[in-house]
Please model this.
Amino acid sequence: MTKALESLIELTRALGEPRLDYVIVGEGNTSLRLDEDSFAVKASGHGMQGIDASGFVTVRLAPMLGLLDNPLATLSEEKAITQAAVIGESGGPSPSVEASFHAMLLHECGVRYIGHTHPTAINQILCSEYGPDFAFQRRFPDEAVVCGPRSALVPYADPGLPLALVIREKARDYLAAYGEAPKLILLENHGMIALGETPAEILNITAMAVKAARIFLGALMTGAPTRLPEDEVWHVYRRPDEIYRRKIFVDGDG
Ligand SMILES: [Zn+2]
Model:
């Protein structure tokens, strides 16, 4: 097993820890860009908790990106193309149905790791009308520093190609507006996606998003939540000492 795949397995197990309440049963998936042409992604039907190398497949990127440019593919065509893109012996495990959005985000956003989970605290908000408030506002400085000045918000779509296409549209809007990839993508009535350079960054974004969700829910219970002013959000996000702290967290030492 390569060191890279080992790091992905460790990240997936960490996100799958039951005490964190990020996923249950077979929910959630992770991926890692391996090189120019390929990525590793969780296989369909595996739980994240205690996963090992047999729970991952290596997939060629180009056919998966081709699927998104040819959205007329039927579900069975989509499955056939996805299965044919798997590197290794045929008849092995199938990539997750969400492999298409992993391929697209690794490519479009230029990140190395992706962690997709369905945390209860996050979904309590994303299954309500407060999704936009949670996605577009920040309530405390570390939320802005770790999760970015705002999140991309994606309306509900059928998991698979339809979802990958809406996420692509929202990721492109974010890149065009802010000149950098989102760190946190929120999927209405579904869950969250953390994008990062290291496993530590994925874990930090997920944990901070869950903390922010709990704070938002608590604020709603006690009255009307307040928010950081927009200029304060950008100020703290761009402060040199916060950029330094962010780099230490991303490297996993802080
Ligand atoms: Zn999902």
In short: Strands lie at 29-33, 38-42, 56-60, 86-87, 113-117, 152-154, 184-187, 191-196. The pocket of zinc ion is lined by residues 98, 116, 118, 190-191 (CB under 6 Å). Residues 3-251 form a domain with the L-fuculose-1-phosphate Aldolase fold (CATH 3.40.225.10). The two ends are 28 Å apart (CA to CA).
